[in-house]
Amino acid sequence: MKIGILTSGGDCPGLNAVIRGAVLKGSRKYGIEFVGIRDGWRGLVDADFFPLQRADVKGLSKVGGTILGTSRTNPYEGDRGGAENIKKTMYGHKLDGIIAIGGEGTLAAANRLWNDGVPVLGVPKTIDNDLQATDYSFGFDTAVNIATEAMDRLRTTGDSHQRCMVAEVMGRHVGWIALHSGMAAGAHIICIPEVPLSIEEICEQVESASERGRAPLVVVAEGFKLKGQEEAYSDKGLDAFNRPRLGGIGEVLAPLIEERTGIETRSTVLGHIQRGGSPSAFDRVLATRLGLHAADAIVDGAWGQMVAMKGTEIERVTFEEALGELHEVPLSRYEEASALFG
């Protein structure tokens, strides 16, 4: 059996650990031959393959990024795109199936290819933790740790100048990174996509913290919307899947907070810092386990499915289950955190 592995969408700490887990177990226990596919779906469309052997994945669990490279290419675009062309390419290179490691956009493309007859298995990857079918996705824990450390640093400079510090973190549709890192860093208000707030409500918590002698810390997810705001803030155009490239809401909030409260306010966008560096121990273990179980799923012929974490176990779910709805922050979790605001 010959299997191709690709990583698609945004990079993420733990991708290499998945690759390592799948290759080690697949080759040693099942005798599977693996092929690396460069730069996500682009490499599959262009037949940009290379042998992926045990020696190539040695020591990868602690390495950030992805040795395969990644992109946001749509596999149905271009002269060589589409399911029929991809099936011909796979047949010509004797590929029996594909392991696609990625987030919502990647898994949606994988599901479409599966429905069109391409054997694809999914491994969930999203630092946003926004896939409903898995309790946790690797990369999330690392992103929270990085964001928390950055906020700890912002708080020291904010305390020195008695400034309000606004920290913008990733989170297109859901606020898990903002919620967890904000709670860990002792934020005075957390703004997430699931709970629109008015600028007055935000400033009320900022002033409350300031009156207690604290330098206010505001944490905001990139997908947060003020009340009355129909779309999340974006001025960077569209990505390959025609989704707005978010980012910049922190720069919008900072002058509004300063204008209304009179407190000097600075904004920091953490951006891709959250994606970089070595994965945390939790993410190394989770990613490795997903890779190990992906090898098992291939042997069982579980195409059109995704390996997922349920509680502490790794299970399999269909692409339809994985893409049915987003894993949003429940209102109860936000209300729990709000006891710490102000």
Features:
five-stranded mixed sheet, 6-phosphofructokinase activity, four-stranded parallel sheet, Phosphofructokinase_dom, elongated, transferase, about 40% helix, Rossmann fold, kinase, about 350 residues, Phosphofructokinase_CS, alpha/beta, 11 helices
Short description:
This protein is an alpha/beta fold.
What order do the strands of the largest sheet run in, or round the barrel if closed? 3-2-1-4-5
Report the structural category: alpha/beta
* Parts with pLDDT < 50 across at least 5 consecutive residues: none
Count of distinct structural domains:
2
Overall body shape: elongated
Percent of sequence in beta strands:
15-25%
Cofactor: Mg(2+)
GO biological process, one term: fructose 6-phosphate metabolic process
Pfam family, one: PFK
Enzyme class: transferase
Secondary structure blueprint with pairings:
Blueprint (H helix, E strand, L loop, with lengths): L1 E6 L7 H16 L2 E5 L3 H5 L3 E4 L30 H10 L4 E6 L1 H12 L4 E5 L15 H22 L2 E6 L6 H10 L3 E3 L7 H13 L5 E5 L27 H13 L3 E5 L11 H19 L5 E6 L2 E6 H4 L8 H8 L4
Parallel strand pairs: 1-2, 1-4, 4-5, 6-8, 6-9, 7-8
Antiparallel strand pairs: 2-3, 10-11
Helix pairs in contact: 1-9, 5-6, 7-8
